[in-house]
Amino acid sequence: MSIEHSFAWNAHLELDYQWIKGRTVPVLRRHKGPLRVQKHLYPEGAEICQHILLHPPGGVAGGDMLNIKINAGPHTMVQLVNPGAGKWYRSDLPSYQNIKLRVESGATLEWLPQESIFFSGCQANLDTTVELAANAKFITWDIIALGRPASSELFNSGSVRQRFRLWCNGRLLWSERMQLFGGGQLLKSPIGLAGYPVAGTLIASGKISDHLLAVCRNLPVEGRGGITQLPGLIIVRFIGLEAEAARHWFTALWRQLRPALVGRSVHFPRIWST
């Protein structure tokens, strides 16, 4: 066994929330290794429980495996954020992140992580599965930054593999796979990332009016972006030069979408300002 592999983390985090006497209450908080949450936060009142997901090592190294399982019970409202960008380091060994999210009847889950930075030479594998009840509500985004252009590091080796599947009421509503190879043609191709080092996707369940869709499409974006409304889903794509530009656009869209889809105005998590 290599020295690198012998120090790999196999981390697990499992959270379960239930609706108890008008309050979203965490009833299960199980963790192993360097994945955890701390204090339950209620910045918007008792209905919505906010948790900050912590990964103390600050980055994912070769051989690491992160497993996250979340269940939002009936009628709960859950918001999950993290304190900073995730980092995936150069390695000859693969690293993994597996996320399973379940949102039960009448529940709302917002999964709003900050960007993931993939260092050149990483071997990253990410798999996310979402299961929604027919009347559940879900909003998420994912921002990836390839290499570290500010440090003159391009993503010229390694790989990032992502899979995302969303089920609603037992029916597969959205499924996609992405494979990016360092220095590969897809990074430069006009049907790929067109030479941009940052890409992002926002997904929200539900339907919005044509007027609100037009408002969202007219929001300024520093990069290239597009918004599509499908049956039961809103899909947003971004490519650009800076992760900050993706965050600004996605949060501006969230400000518009959240009242329409969740019925609540936006309250920005305090951790985003620290």
From TrEMBL:
- Keyword Cytoplasm present in the record's keywords: the answer is yes
Pfam families documented for this protein:
UreD
The keyword Chaperone is assigned to this record: yes
- Any signal peptide, and if so, which residues? none
Q: Which GO terms describe its cellular component?
A: cytoplasm
Assembly, in brief, is: UreD, UreF and UreG form a complex that acts as a GTP-hydrolysis-dependent molecular chaperone, activating the urease apoprotein by helping to assemble the nickel containing metallocenter of UreC. The UreE protein probably delivers the nickel.
Name of this chain's protein: Urease accessory protein UreD
Q: Which species expresses this protein natively?
A: Candidatus Nitrosoglobus terrae
Gene name as annotated: ureD
